[in-house]
Design brief:
CATH architecture of the largest domain: Sandwich
Number of helices: 20
Largest sheet: 6 strands, mixed
Number of strands: 20
Radius of gyration: 24 Å
CATH superfamily of the largest domain: tricorn interacting facor f3 domain
Shape: globular
CATH topology of the largest domain: Immunoglobulin-like
Strand order of the largest sheet: 4-7-2-1-10-12
């Protein structure tokens, strides 16, 4: 998932579950030995790591190794209906299979032949986690099939009307991370459980279905599509979208899907994707997923991007018209190694996914666009980290890299601590041991643990054995425990700086001294220059100064979502009413949580702003995904 798309901190919820209580006091779980990569669905799944506190599943007893889906997409009923068939490996001779569900209507459960019905029970509802599905099996059972339907309010699914989709046809997409796959597929919904999958999906004629799998590039006549994912993935990477989609090739193994009105613009914007793939492979080895395609979703999509294997789901807000926001593609592409290939075993270990990916993103951008680009990303990232440390409190446990999320929604751990503190830690290791040596280590790490899920303890053991063994001076300098299990940012953290931002600093000083905005030297500035400028404007900003800036740079009319959202933060703070129509237009046409959360938070700080926020939100809320709705509901204390 792309950095900065962050949920709010929520209140600690205590769940009266024995499995949570048993695990809550374990600060550093240890994963089992790694297993070799399978290439065919028949290959047994790798051993499961310790019990995941966010899952009812017991993969140490019975593990799902392959999923076969047969689903019909019903836009009128706003539901998926069909069958999920699970091939299982019974490791202990158990007589029960435990699966995760949330809001699913289970019609029937059958065993191997698909006809012999099995006894099943749904346990009590637990907030966030849903209900455990307990199926009676025998030690010889190999297949369990579940006939079910989703509900219209399934949290992973967004059903868009044609108007909401910006299309003559309706649109559906899923968002499974972190624990929402269980709202549309009964599964062992833990990142520590990996499986292969195949699917048959039926959509109305004239629409196309795509998944995180091998995909079509043209519509079928009958609306029936088949999919295959031959590599093992965790459930949070299950993904489905259906709508009036078209495909354009970008390179030999990459392309873009989008609505017909968007696809040409998207293909132009993302033209450098093959260069990014080549740069990533040169750094850390061959791309192991076959194709790398991108799906540009409607504006309601709540994240920047989601690294669904073979098919990144991406926000249309990256289509700036000047290829200036494609670092998001580099981030999701990097997940093909750090996250999808080697996966965090639990959500406590989320930093293993995002810290390495954020670092890798910068390296891809450096290789394609030069070192100044990498440095600008690093400085902006450090600014974001300082903001979240201020919000969370620099000494709180939530600023550790390794988290303790038992009894909490795992979304609470998806903050810039994992992304930016994680990337800063990786950069610290690189600078300590040297880039050449570190790159060799990281490539070997990806190869060693390919298609496996590992936890923090296992990573630390591997790092110590492969990179720091016999070099106590390096271990002392890096301070692994301080970074991973300690709060805030160690004083030894690398200093990040950008020479490219020197001219921004000069412009800010000139502005502070009274120079009119139109006379500032901004020639050649990129999106990153403008973000640094807007984040550091001298405060307070009065109406005259805001009007001068807007007249000179037309911020309120910007088609660049990053620049516009940063400007709108200043608009709210300065109560610059001439830009209120731009603010309302933005909040009612963009569903990306990264932008919505700070804007609504800033509005809520004043009675006038809160009144405006509630009025706008009442209009905009039906078009937001549930992920964004949950965030803004909390900010505004929504009672609608």
């Amino acid at each position: 998932m792309k950095s900065f798309d962050l949920p709010p901190s929520a209140a600690l919820l205590l769940l009266a579950l024995p499995l949570l209580a048993a695990c809550a006091g374990q600060p550093r779980p240890t994963a089992p030995a790694a297993a070799a990569e399978p290439q065919q669905p028949a290959t047994p799944a790798s051993p499961a790591p310790p019990r995941d506190v966010h899952s009812f599943a017991r993969p140490d007893e019975v593990a799902v190794e392959h999923l076969k889906l047969d689903l019909t997409v019903d836009f009128n009923a706003r539901q998926l209906a069909g069958r999920a068939s699970l091939r299982i490996a019974n490791k202990t001779g158990a007589d029960r299979l435990y699966l995760d569900t949330r809001g699913l209507d289970i019609r029937k459960v059958t065993l191997d032949d698909g006809a012999t019905e099995a006894a099943f029970t749904l346990g009590d509802e637990v907030e966030f986690l849903g209900r455990p599905l307990e199926v009676r099996i025998t030690p010889a059972t190999r297949w369990v099939s579940i006939d079910y339907t989703t509900r219209p309010d399934a949290a992973a699914l967004q059903w868009l009307t044609p108007a909401q989709a910006g299309s003559p046809s309706p649109f559906l997409y899923t968002q499974s991370q972190a624990i929402l796959a269980r709202t549309w597929v009964p599964c062992q919904d833990s990142p520590g459980v990996r499986m292969t999958y195949e699917a048959t999906v039926r959509v109305p004629r004239g629409l196309m279905a795509v998944m995180s799998a091998e995909n079509p590039t043209a519509k079928t006549a009958d609306g029936v599509y088949t999919f295959k994912m031959p590599q093992r993935i965790p459930s949070y990477l299950l993904a489905l979208a259906a709508g009036d989609l078209e495909f354009r090739a970008l390179g030999a193994n990459s392309g873009v899907y989008a609505l017909p009105t968007v696809v040409e613009r998207a293909a132009w914007e993302l033209a450098d994707t093959p260069k990014m793939i080549a740069a990533a492979e040169k750094l850390y080895g061959p791309y192991k997923w076959g194709r790398y395609d991108i799906l540009i979703l409607p504006a309601s999509y709540p994240f920047g991007g989601m690294e669904n294997p073979r098919l990144t789901f991406a926000t249309p807000t990256i289509l700036a018209g000047d290829r200036s926001l494609v670092a998001l593609v580099a981030h999701e592409l990097a997940h093909s190694w750090s996250g999808n290939l080697v996966t965090n075993a639990t959500w406590n270990d989320f930093w293993l996914n995002e810290g390495f990916t954020t670092y890798f993103e910068g390296r891809i951008m450096e290789a394609v666009y030069g070192r100044p680009y990498f440095d600008m990303l690093a400085v902006l990232g450090r600014q974001d980290l300082e903001d979240v440390l201020k919000e969370l409190g620099p000494d709180t446990a939530d600023t550790h890299l390794y988290l303790s999320l038992a009894g909490r929604d795992p979304d609470e751990g998806m903050t810039d601590v994992a992304y930016e503190k994680g990337a800063l830690f990786v950069r610290s290791v690189e600078q300590t041991v040297g880039r050449e040596r570190f790159d060799k280590f990281l490539r070997t790490y990806f190869d060693t643990f390919a298609f496996q899920s590992i936890d923090t303890t296992k990573f630390v053991q591997y790092l110590n054995a492969q990179l720091l063994a016999g070099k106590p001076e390096l271990a002392e300098k890096i301070q692994l425990d301080r970074w991973i299990y300690g709060p805030g940012v160690p004083a030894t953290a690398p200093e990040v700086r950008s020479e490219a931002f020197t001219q921004v600093g000069q412009a800010l000083e000139a502005l502070k001294a009274g120079t009119p905005a139109s006379q500032l030297q901004t020639t050649g500035w990129t999106t990153h220059h403008w973000l640094h400028f807007l984040r550091n404007l001298p405060k307070p900003l009065d109406t005259a100064r805001m009007a001068d800036l807007d007249a000179a740079f037309r911020f309120s009319e910007s088609g660049n979502s990053e620049i516009l959202s940063a400007w709108l933060m200043d608009v709210i703070e300065a109560r610059y009413q001439p830009a209120y129509p731009a603010l309302e237009r933005f909040l009612t046409t963009v569903g990306r949580r990264k932008f919505l959360k700070p804007l609504y938070t800033e509005l809520a700080k004043s009675p006038e702003g809160a009144e405006m926020a509630l009025r706008i939100y009442e209009q905009a809320r039906p078009g937001y995904h549930s992920v964004s709705q949950n965030t803004i509901d909390e900010i505004l204390d929504w009672q609608g």
